[in-house]
Amino acid sequence: MAAYSFDTEVVHGGEGLPVSPGLPSLTPIYASSTYRYSQMSEMDAVFGGEQQGYVYQRYGNPTLTALEVVLARLDNGSDAVVFSSGMAALHAALLLCELQAGDTVLLARSTYGATLGLLNQIFGPLGVVVRLADFSDHAALEAALQQQPLPRVALFEPLSNPLLQVADVYTVSKLAHSVGATVIADNTFASPYVLQPLDLGADIVVHSATKFLSGHGDVTGGVVVVKDAERATALRTISKLVGAILSPFDAHLIHRGVKTLALRMERQCQNALAVARWLSQQPAIAVVNYPGLAGHPQHALASVQLCRGQFGAIMSFEVKGGDKAAVFRFMDALKLIIPVTTLGDVYSEVLYPPMSSHRDWSPKQRQQAGIGEGLVRLSVGIEHIDDILADLKQALAAIG
Ligand SMILES: *Cc1c(COP(=O)(O)O)cnc(C)c1O
Questions:
Q1: CB distance 315 to 164 below 8 Å
Q2: How many angstroms separate the alpha carbon of residue 51 from the centre of ligand 1?
Q3: Any long-range contacts for 329-332 (C-beta under 8 Å, 24+ apart)?
Q4: Distances from the Cα of 352 to the Cαs of 111, 316, 338, 343, in angstroms?
Q5: Which helix (H) or strand (E) holds 286?
Q6: Which residues pair with 82 in a beta bridge?
Q7: Nearest to residue 310, comparing CAs of 159, 134, 110, 204?
Q8: Percent of the chain, pLDDT > 70?
Q9: Helical (H) or strand (E) element with 258
Q10: Quick one: CA dihedral 106, 91, 88, 201, positive or negative?
């Protein structure tokens, strides 16, 4: 029986019903920007922080909380806050370090292109200076850390893009802490299945949840995980005030993806090792960069630092004598593996770094960094290994 007129029922009908007993076994998508309380005094207490509760979506949402709880646990952090993209998460992590005009950020030379862009184009005009260093070379890193002015923040990707160099998170953190820098690890390439930087000394972990965490190429999101509970309050405030919050629908998709992270990663890492071994035996391939190969310069480090005896799902390889035209012919010839500007999905994906992440570098700069014009980045999916290898084989034949 309707309590109000039709015109009013369409607006309010069915809302505010109690959900228990019989709670949903999965967190629903709470598409509600606000929360109501039966007593105003209760809402007052929530606003005043004397009582836990939800009041407004930008302050927190149960669908987001569920995802934040699981992501904090996966990285062994005290808390996590999700954001609308990996870049929004990186931005929040840098704000969390309270950078001021004149402060220096020490950034690993091989990071996601937009990370350098964020520092140069957004933080640069505010007076923040970027210094670059090779985080796999401890002597060079130490020198860069000790250079005046001392850096406030050290930001790096433990598995570098696109050469898959492995940084020693423990040593990097120790060296950075010795000069008072806060350590931010962008752990997107490894995922918490393969690497847990907070356990090794990092202070803050960032992920683009667009990649392995969601894993299906259907959502954009990011997360910041903090080791110390004291930082969590400040991080929440940044999220509230900057407002780059994740939508509950996207949080649901990421949470759904996370449920299969271990299964996906297990298969993807196994496939990647098999692909790396196969590629390294092909006469048409000059180099394969994959930490799981015995010949990788940091294979020993990767073996102890990475978890579960796995080495991740991403590699890069160089087509012998290859240039842009040869790589494009190879990529055009692929039938199963898709050429896209992302990674970490259930689908195998290739990308040409000189066209994308390192486009703004000159060929000489790329060559000095070891990024040849024949370099291909491959993120290995969960398809059957035979089909992945067959696709690579027929595409390599097309350029042979
Ligand atoms: C994709 C990516 C980002 C940026 O994440 P978005 O979700 O695209 O904003 C940052 N760091 C790394 C290592 C990435 O691969």
A1: yes
A2: 35
A3: 329/398, 329/399, 330/376, 330/395, 330/396, 330/398, 330/399, 331/376, 331/395
A4: 15, 10, 12, 12
A5: strand 285-289
A6: 223
A7: 159
A8: 100
A9: helix 248-258
A10: positive
CA–centroid distance, residue 198 to ligand 1 (Å)? 19
**pLDDT computed for residue 11 by the predictor:** 85
Ligand 1 within 6 A of CB of 379 = no
Q: To test the ligand 1 pocket, which listed residue (82, 84, 85, 87) has its Cβ within 8 A of the most ligand atoms?
A: 87
Tell me which amino acid residue 268 is: Q
356 pLDDT tier (thresholds 50, 70, 90): confident
358 and 371 in contact (C-beta within 8 Å)? yes
Domains assigned to the chain: 40-258 (3.40.640.10), 261-397 (3.90.1150.10)
Six-digit token string for 111: 């990071």
**Residue keyed to tokens 């029922």:** 9
State if residue 189 touches ligand 1 by the CB under 6 angstroms criterion.
Answer: yes
3-state secondary structure of 133: strand
Contact 352, 346 (CB under 8 A): no
Answer whether 112 contacts ligand 1 (Cβ < 6 A): yes
Q: What is the DSSP string of 4-47?
A: S-HHHHHHHTT-S----SS--SS------SB---SSHHHHHHHH
Exactly one of 30, 168, 211, 250 is catalytic; which is it? 211
User: Tens of pLDDT along 7-16?
Assistant: 888 888 878 7
Give yes or no for a contact between 194 and 312, defined as CB atoms under 8 angstroms apart: yes
